[in-house]
Amino acid sequence: MYKLTINGKAIESPDGATILEAARRVGIRIPTLCFLEKREPVGACRVCLVEVAGARTLMAACSTPAANGMDIKTNSPRVRAARRQVVELLLSEHDGNCQICDRNQDCELQELASELGIREIAYEGEKAKARIDDSTPALVRDNSKCIKCRRCVTVCSQVQGVGALHPQGRGFDTVIGPAFTLDLDGVACVQCGQCAAVCPVGAISEKSHVEAVWKALEDPTKTVVVQTAPAIRAALGECFGCEPGTRVTGKMTSALRTLGFNGVFDTNFTADLTIMEEGTELLTRLKKALVDGEKVPLPMFTSCSPGWINFAEYYYPEFLPNLSTCKSPQQMFGAVAKTYYAQKIGVKPEDMIVVSIMPCTAKKFECQREEMNDSGVRDVDYVLTTRELGRMIKEAGIDFMSLEDGKMDAPLGLGSGAADIFANTGGVMEAALRTAYEIVTGRTLPMENLHVKPVAGLEGIKEASVVITGTVPAWSFLEGVEVKLAVVHGLANVRRLLESIKLGEKSYHFVEVMTCPGGCIGGGGQPRLTDDSVRVKRIAAIYAEDEGKALRKSHKNEAVQQLYKEFLGAPLGEKSHHLLHTKYKSKPAL
């Protein structure tokens, strides 16, 4: 541990820490517009400048190592003047249109300018030429708002391992975007939205479906129903000033009903349905491999995350047969709502609009895939991110925090605690184990409070195994089998795992993949800025939601059982195969 002084306060800092990290350890704030935790600093914005005694110039705190005996000032007149000038120069070429920008009052540059007391534009410089890229279903880029901080480049290349965005050109002419200044649809972008989640300004954002949803709600000829993903309930409150991890399930339900939706439902219902279908698919593959001697694609990978599907289609098409054929819970819900539920209430599928509230921008792409229309029309019509729902609630003049807790509608509003934890990395795996283990052995999963600790937490790649003993007769072929499992989140980690499987270094039966760091709770459509401290709080909230429910296993969901009895027949049956399953094909390298 090094001993140093910051603003006259003696502190200790571990070897290898930067000045920025040392300051944050003791609660001293140094602003930055380019830094991302646990990633190599780029020092692009120069907002984190600090004064180090004896140094000739001001130092960038994000990239300067803390050293023994350093005397640092983070708020001296020299530092404040330098920061102010840096921000004034950024503003001089930033065509922000703050009054109508969707980042107004949620913009780090705007907040920092206010904090530094900037009340006028000090330098009238040339503005970057506006170029709007709305080529993909999920994202919109506006180069005129870009401050060239390179956060999007860092997250795309280092966290997601995709590399769709790069800095090009020099000086004022630098452009951040796809190679050769192409649009996003011209490169292998998986549309995960992590770039939009870390962008400090309005240069990258989700493609809004808000106006389309308002129009649908105002159309008396349409029955408009909404589904809410489990991750939303642990994050939506942040749009209204709540601490990360504040659970607002009931208020969210009441807000959606106040907005005018004809049915307020829960994606948890079809998360439970996914476990029934996906679990049966896994057990079927294992039976074919172990009993029938067939060569089946193992490990089987989960297929709930559309960014991961895109990634596999672009980069690892050889693993497409290993993907579960199950649609995501979002798409299952749409298919069930426009068939089973529509029949129940006497509405034609074409007269029903299904809206999803998702933490994920890639869901906007997923709902428009050509495969997703097995209900006879498009299964899901519109997707709103958590941020978009927050804006709609404010636009409607709803006092969110004063709402009473509401309950979701039946039958598609009933979900188990196992479905709640789909929001967290490791959650799908844990939910699957709760059901599969009980089906195979007739006993409850022997884990503390049903939680499978090895697959929880924020480690990028997690492994576990379960030795099956005491099977019921129908599953005796699994007696003594060690089922090997893996959980991975963040696509750079996924790439590492897939390469190790290809090389024969790792072997598994079942792998859960989530595109975004931390899982859906860290999705590209969640309130900004999401770092590990925020992820941990949201994850804890989701586990608490699960633990507070009497129903904690997917196969015990009576509404799902009724769906099979009245409509689907059986998991992997003819009707469920048609409505709830799909397949994917490779995409040409771009």
Can you offer a commentary on this structure?
With about 600 residues, this protein is an alpha/beta fold. About 35% of the residues lie in helices and about 15% in strands. Strands 2-1-5-3-4 form a five-stranded mixed β-sheet, with helices on both faces. The model has no long low-confidence stretch (mean pLDDT about 95).
Short descriptors:
590 residues, alpha/beta, five-stranded mixed beta sheet, Alpha-Beta Plaits, Ubiquitin-like (UB roll), 18 helices, Rossmann fold, 4 domains, four-stranded parallel beta sheet
The CATH top-level class label of the largest domain: Alpha Beta
Q: Count of DSSP E strands?
A: 18
Could you give the order of strands across the largest sheet? 2-1-5-3-4
The residue fraction in helices comes out at: 25-40%
Give me the Rg, rounded. Answer: 25 Å
CATH architecture of the largest domain: 3-Layer(aba) Sandwich
Total discrete domains? 4
The main sheet comes to: 5 strands, mixed
Overall geometry comes to globular
